[in-house]
Amino acid sequence: MKIATESAEETRALAARLGALLGPGDLVLLVGDLGAGKTAFTQGLARGLGVTDPVTSPTFTIVQEYAGRLPLAHVDVYRLDRVQDLHDLGFDELVDDGRVTVVEWGDRVAQVVPTDHLVVRIELGDAENVRVLEVSCHGPRWRARHEALERALGDGAG
Amino acid sequence: MLLLGIETATRRVGVVLASDEGVLGRVELGGLADAGAPRHAERLVPAIQYACAQLDLGLDRVSAIAVGVGPGMFTGLRVGVTTAKALAQALRVPMIPVPSLDLLAYPLRYARSLVVPAIDARRNEVYYALYRTVPGGVQRASDYEIGTPDDLVAELEARGEEALLCGDGALRFASTFRRVEHVELAGPAHAAPSLPALVELAAARYQREEFCAADDVLPLYLRKSDAELAWDRKDG
């Protein structure tokens, strides 16, 4: 499904609706160039998870954890080179241990993370501040939730 | 001898203090029934402090530090092994690293079958090894392996022997393992590496002065990959 937003705040509001829907173990891969709004999206998603601490880019910390309705792990794999780097982060356990995990530059790891994940691709739109978000479900667990996802994200979006 | 033992290869944080006479006291927190994200980093040091305080023993009395080195949970091992190494360096005492699968197998040394501990490795895989029981203990009869539950089932079926499975990996994939003939599952009491086993195995090595310097102690990491992460943005 594709949804257009017209401001960073609209992107956050959309992401917050997704955040409210997420459960333990959910993995969200964010794809998009620098400045596309991956961090804004994560900020909204965190809001939807009830995270109150400010969410900043984890480019240098690589993993940043937040407390919310569920724990949130915000991961940035931009600076990783090898699959081994992911093992060395304990990535498998982050995902497995009841958190919600959001990965920036997620296309880099799509082949090596668990099959069940959501991909959110953020692209620049025709006008300034317009973004087109393409959400796709991967794996049986997410495909089964496709309708609930459409209801949540379609509601109130442009 | 005062031995401090630390075991964090599963969701359970384990701390034990022991003298020549055996276990003085132990603290175990977390585990299978404790849902949510494990909290090794928050729990380990307070658990050590609590054990020392209640037993009225100062850390300066510790003569060696034993630590479970996995294979097992990555974040748990990182916290447990690093804490053990830091304490050993600060206290200037030697270390005794013990594989965590050995600590699961040892309490089942009276079994009359193969003993097969399996620790949950996530991503639908387990760490495992096969042990034979021998007088006074167990003897490892395979390498430390990582594989899917089906890999382990194939190994067990190929051997065709009676086997007793234990560990949180055996319990997580119980339905898979129960389908194998001649295989029995040990219950939740055998989900996490045993602290009394850590004391017994480490004390024997302490008597023989089989020590390790802190610098030489590393967790057993079995999950290795040389593959590179892709940069294939289709719309760069």
Helix fraction of chain A? Answer: 25-40%
Report on the biggest sheet of chain A: 7 strands, mixed
Low-confidence stretches of chain A: none
The CATH class assignment of the largest domain in chain B is Alpha Beta
Please, what is the oligomeric state? heterodimer
| Separation, N- and C-terminal Cα atoms of chain A | 12 Å
Query: From N to C, what is the helix and strand string of chain B?
Result: EEEHEHEHEEEEEHEHHEH
Helical coverage of chain B, percent range: 25-40%
Please tell me the CATH architecture of the largest domain in chain B by its name: 2-Layer Sandwich
The CATH architecture classification of chain A is: 3-Layer(aba) Sandwich
Spatial sequence of strands, sheet with the most strands of chain B: 3-2-1-4-5
Shape call of chain B: globular
Name of the CATH superfamily of chain A: P-loop containing nucleotide triphosphate hydrolases
Q: Can you tell me the overall shape of chain A?
A: globular
CATH fold descriptor of the largest domain in chain B: Nucleotidyltransferase, domain 5
CATH class of chain A: Alpha Beta
Descriptive overview:
The complex is a heterodimer of chains A (158) and B (236). With 158 residues, chain A is of the alpha/beta class. Chain A has one domain (2-154): P-loop containing nucleotide triphosphate hydrolases (Rossmann fold, 3-Layer(aba) Sandwich). Helices cover 32% and strands 25% of the residues of chain A. Chain A contains 6 helices and 7 strands. Chain A has helices at 8-21, 38-48, 83-88, 91-96, 140-143, 146-154; strands at 2-5, 27-31, 63-66, 72-76, 100-104, 117-124, 131-138. Chain A has a 7-stranded mixed beta sheet with strand order 1-7-6-2-5-4-3. In chain A, strand 6 (117-124) and strand 7 (131-138) form a beta hairpin. In chain A, helix 1 packs across helix 2 and helix 1 (8-21) packs antiparallel against helix 6 (146-154). The mean pLDDT of chain A is 92. Chain B is an alpha/beta fold. Chain B has 2 domains: 3-99 and 194-216, Nucleotidyltransferase, domain 5 (2-Layer Sandwich), CATH 3.30.420.40; 101-190, 2-Layer Sandwich (Nucleotidyltransferase, domain 5), CATH 3.30.420. Helices cover 31% and strands 25% of the residues of chain B. Chain B is built from 7 helices and 12 strands. Chain B has helices spanning 40-55, 74-91, 100-105, 149-159, 168-172, 174-178, 195-207, and strands at 3-7, 13-19, 22-29, 64-68, 95-98, 114-122, 125-128, 131-134, 137-140, 145-147, 163-166, 183-185. In chain B, strands 3-2-1-4-5 form a 5-stranded mixed beta sheet, with helices on both faces. Chain B has a 5-stranded mixed beta sheet with strand order 10-7-6-11-12. Chain B has a two-stranded antiparallel ribbon with strand order 8-9. In chain B, helix 1 (40-55) crosses helix 2 (74-91). Chain B is globular and about 50 Å long.
